[in-house]
Amino acid sequence: MSSSNTENSERSEDSLNIDRQQGEQQERVEESATSSLQSVATGMQPSVPACAAGVTASEIFENNLRDILRCKICLALRRTTLYLCQTGHLICASCLAHLLTDAQLCEETPKCPICQKDISIPVRNIAAELAISELPSNCRFCNEKFPHGSLDHHERHECQDSPVACKYSRIGCKWFGERKEASDHERNCEFLSKTPEEIAATLETIEVDYDSKHDEIERIFQSLMYSLNSERTLCVDLQLMCYCNNHQLFYTTTDFHAFNELWIIRARLNNQNDTDPANVISFSYQLVLKTEPRSSLMVQFVALKGSRSDIKISMQLYKHVFTPTSLESHYCALPLTDCNDCIQLLAKKGTKIRIMLSLLD
């Protein structure tokens, strides 16, 4: 009986010890959680000097968010395409382009300069882009703050200080001023008192400008239709391969045959020596005749999206007359659809494109 009481007593003491340990552990967890919440609250709330300086909690939160969303290389808040390295460091498109270009020139694997992780497969951070678009920005005209995503609409359609044209500009009025002054001007616009003959004379000059633009569009359309219907039109699938020459980054294709001649495509990254990260990334390309022609060849050409390629190219026609003394076209803009396509082209050793060529009379 005594032995049984002893065992029960020991079990009771063990239970009490376990309950005591669990209680202490729970207290530590609660203390830790409380401490964390206090730290967060302290970080989110303005300090006494900040309050004294008139800085609100929302302004402090906004500034902290701006610091988080800055490019970790140039430390600028970019409202462009943003990317992530493998460990989550935010890199703007311009800085990533420089990193990829330097890696291509040195024939090395591109790495994040902060954590040294491979960044040869760029990954967009759309969440950061959307967060930045919601950050307030100052209107260029009234200096009021608006979410960046709605700023363009405000400046174009709502801002009373933004410059606008008179609504009678379609019939020749050339007044240009602030939106808040437009209604007063339009009530007294001199074109309201003009005769139909005077307005018709003004419209004739306006229609000349419109007709010239329309003729240019029509010419491009007819040129494209002629190319598609021509028996001397062909499409060639090629691969742009990256190479370096005198510390410059170029791309080239293998030789291909067209119109009984031998050709290549050569491309390059524009502004390679420009270190300003705010500049837009762009490419250009040229058509090169490798053989000497027996007569002049007028060739119209356009670069298109390659088969199974994720790099999209806008259609833009170019023309060049090839002669024995002119074997290379000028460098023409390679109109990639957006910044992400430029980054993808820089990140790849080889990119597929399609070239359509037409031999014109």
Automatic annotation (TrEMBL):
List GO molecular-function terms, semicolon-separated.
zinc ion binding
Compositional bias per record (Basic and acidic residues), positions renumbered to this chain: 21-31
Q: Which residues form a coiled coil?
A: none
Domain RING-type, residue spans = 71-116
Q: Which GO terms of the cellular component aspect does the record hold? A: nucleus
Q: Which Gene3D superfamilies match?
A: Zinc/RING finger domain, C3HC4 (zinc finger)
**Looking at the record's lineage, which domain of life comes first?**
Eukaryota
Q: Which InterPro entries match?
A: ZFTRAF1, Znf_RING, Znf_RING/FYVE/PHD
- Give the record's keywords alphabetically: Metal-binding, Zinc, Zinc-finger
Is Zinc-finger there in the keyword field?
Answer: yes
Region entry Disordered: which residue ranges? Answer: 1-39
Q: Which family does it belong to?
A: Belongs to the ZFTRAF1 family.
Q: What is this protein called?
A: RING-type domain-containing protein
Organism per entry: Glossina morsitans morsitans (Savannah tsetse fly)
What's the source species' lineage?
Eukaryota, Metazoa, Ecdysozoa, Arthropoda, Hexapoda
